[in-house]
């Protein structure tokens, strides 16, 4: 199996830093399915290519019982599949996590990339990769060029071109290679759900074919597929579609929708007009806020450039009068920014739990100390309610990027400390159905400045 990654970023030789593989060396790695080799067939400041060659040991696979090849001689060792994805995880694991100590700013930058897979199941390639920003070219590979009457093989020479972060490109390949092949070579267990959500956290929730991707990646195991889709709903707010079940004519509103409705209702009752959506993500709450005509100025602030670009595209689809009331800025909730000061209200919806606990004092100082809005609305998961999510393993957070999840008492303690330090009062509002033992699934704290 063969995979190549090419960039024309200047200098293109920085690809070696991003991949943590020196261009001047050929490296070999033992993997569970054979041997992986990494080498650079071209290295210039204008264009650099890194290649991953995976040599499969089909006899060893059959002897280990780790694959259902069914026979010793076949085309499986040559066509990109989950076998190649596993090798990528071992060889390029650090790059997939977006870590590059030598070039940290480059690791967060979208760069021009060309990906080539000379033998890959290509039937769904355009459908899966185009929504992620790739230009897709899939040329069918003949069974044998010497015998054209035999027709084409099931595989394609797949070429992807686009401008993305390298980490995003690699994680997309890691997930979508077994999806394209639809024949995972190893046993799928419950931990594959966590792996899928962790690796696909930056793009899977918003992919139009997330249900197809999830089902195929999890080898069509219904229990795991349903669990993954339910947890993805928390990220994207779209109702999860039950695998293999017809869509119901009506659905109960998702927790994310209930959360947005609660926020808009509180803001309306507070009589605010100028609002900051701090950590606006991809703009789903903005979509709700612009429907309320009394909100005359809405500022969305997001630290992640990719999410902000998605929010901008969403805002572009608003009606003209709605668009005129929305402004987007890139910024962080832990750094003071004069652009967010003096507003009537600031919303932090599902934001605080993504902040490392040592940075929470900086968040409080930025929001309550520097910006000083009249009102602050904070929503966060109620950790006590997690026991009611049957598909959530004990001790796990609802999202792979959560740094913590508070109980109601912990949330109240943090809120009281904020009020004492910055001159606010707080009231707590449950969001979602209230369980008599563990409370509501989401906590909403409404802060009001005493001087107001």
What would your notes on this structure say?
Strand 3 (34-43) and strand 4 form a beta hairpin. The strands form 2 sheets. A 7-stranded antiparallel β-sheet has the order 2-3-4-1-5-7-6. It is built from 16 helices and 14 strands. The chain has 2 domains: 2-186, Hen1, N-terminal domain (c-terminal autoproteolytic domain of nucleoporin nup98, 2-Layer Sandwich); 255-449, Vaccinia Virus protein VP39 (Rossmann fold, 3-Layer(aba) Sandwich), CATH 3.40.50. The chain is an alpha/beta fold. Helix 3 packs antiparallel against helix 7 and helix 7 packs across helix 9. It is 33% helix and 23% strand. It catalyses: small RNA 3'-end nucleotide + S-adenosyl-L-methionine = small RNA 3'-end 2'-O-methylnucleotide + S-adenosyl-L-homocysteine + H(+). It comes from Actinophytocola algeriensis. Residues 276-373 form the Methyltransferase type domain.
Describe the structure using short key phrases.
single chain, seven-stranded antiparallel sheet, alpha/beta, 14 strands, 23% strand, RNA binding, small RNA 2'-O-methyltransferase activity, 452 residues, 16 helices, magnesium, Rossmann fold
Short overview:
Residues 235-256 are annotated as: Disordered. By secondary structure, the protein is an alpha/beta fold. Helix content is 33%, strand content 23%.
Uncertain segments are: 66-72, 237-251
Helix content: 25-40%
Quickly give the CATH architecture of the largest domain.
3-Layer(aba) Sandwich
Q: What does the main sheet amount to?
A: 7 strands, antiparallel
